[in-house]
Amino acid sequence: MNEDEKRLYDLIARRFIAVLYPPYKYDQTTIITEVAGEKFISRGKAITDRGWRAVQAGSPEQENRDSEAEPEQTLSQHAKHEQVNVKTVNINKHKTKPPARYTEATLLTAMEHSGKFIEDEELRESIKGSGLGTPATRAEIIEKLIRTSYIERHGKELIPTSKGIQLVDLVPTALRSPELTAQWEQRLTHISRGKEKKNAFIADIRKDTIELVNVIKMDTTTYRADNVSKTKCPACGKNMLLVNGKRGKVLACPDRNCGHRQAENEDVFGRKGNSRATQRLIAQYSDQEELGTSLGEKLKAAMEKKNSKK
User: Fold this and answer.
1) Whole-number Å distance between alpha carbons of 290 and 233
2) What is the pLDDT of residue 303?
3) Which residues pair with 159 in a beta bridge?
4) What are the pLDDT digits (tens) for 109-158?
5) pLDDT digit string (tens) for 170-197?
6) CATH superfamily of 104-218
7) 225, containing H or E segment
8) CA atoms within a 13 Å half-sphere pointing along the CA-CB vector of 19
């Protein structure tokens, strides 16, 4: 066999033999070492039996890299109160990291297991099997938040927009926590077991809804969009909002009934970098009327008038 064939044969042979070997065993170890009155904590593995890994070629570090698990330091065996020598001391400066931003996958998991955000044990148990939304609606809830510009996709991460952050501050506290859903689930469980009447539950929901709406009505806080552009919507004439789309910056009409969207550097005709000329054209022929077919008609009439003069 040539060199490559030998390596392949050796790999197959070792894998086959490893299947017949005993399990790889280790202790998950935490060592607290006291040095000059200061305590240092070390966590890692202390191998007790290499098992099938004894057949594998390479160092323990290579085995860790080949393993599906995340790499972890290997600690040697030590007895309690054992004296050890400190060989070297290094001081490393680090900064704490904020929690990782949600991705669609982690947000779906958080919605499914929303009980971990509830401190009350009884309420946490009541929402354990349900979570927020249903498996069929959770993905659509996230998509709706993206469509309405409350969150944006930045690669795999979901980033809240200024609009989304302001919304969290505007809504009542009860609507910002999974506890309300947990309370409803708890009462529904009581109804199913005959401990509560459904009419009382429905009446309380109506009462809570009225109170929440009144709180929102009385609140004087207002939403202020900080992404308003100078570009007018060609369909309704309102200032468009600059948002992040799948392919870059997008101008979107704030009016949901209108729904017009276009790339940031495109005019209403899909041409690049001609927005100023387009705005002058709209201002000249719109006369404060709704744009759409009326703009086309005005342009057609203007061309006919120009041709008639010739």
Assistant:
1) 10
2) 64
3) 152
4) 999 888 888 888 888 888 887 788 888 899 999 999 988 888 888 888 99
5) 888 888 888 888 888 888 888 998 989 9
6) Topoisomerase I, domain 2 (1.10.460.10)
7) none
8) 5
Q: What is the 3-state secondary structure (H, E, C) of 16-76?
A: HHHHCCCCCEEEEEEEEEEECCEEEEEEEEEEEECHHHHCCCCCHHHHHHHCCCCCCCECC
d(CA 134, CA 111): 9
Residues present in the chain in total: 310
Helix (H) or strand (E) holding 211: helix 198-218
Paired residues of 32 in beta bridges: 41
C-beta neighbour count of 114 within 10 angstroms:
21
Start-to-end C-alpha separation, the chain? 89
Domain extent listing, the chain: 3-66, 104-218, 228-309
CA distance 220 to 131: 33
- The tokens describing 114, both together, are 């929303």
Phi, psi of 24 (to 5 degrees): -85, 125
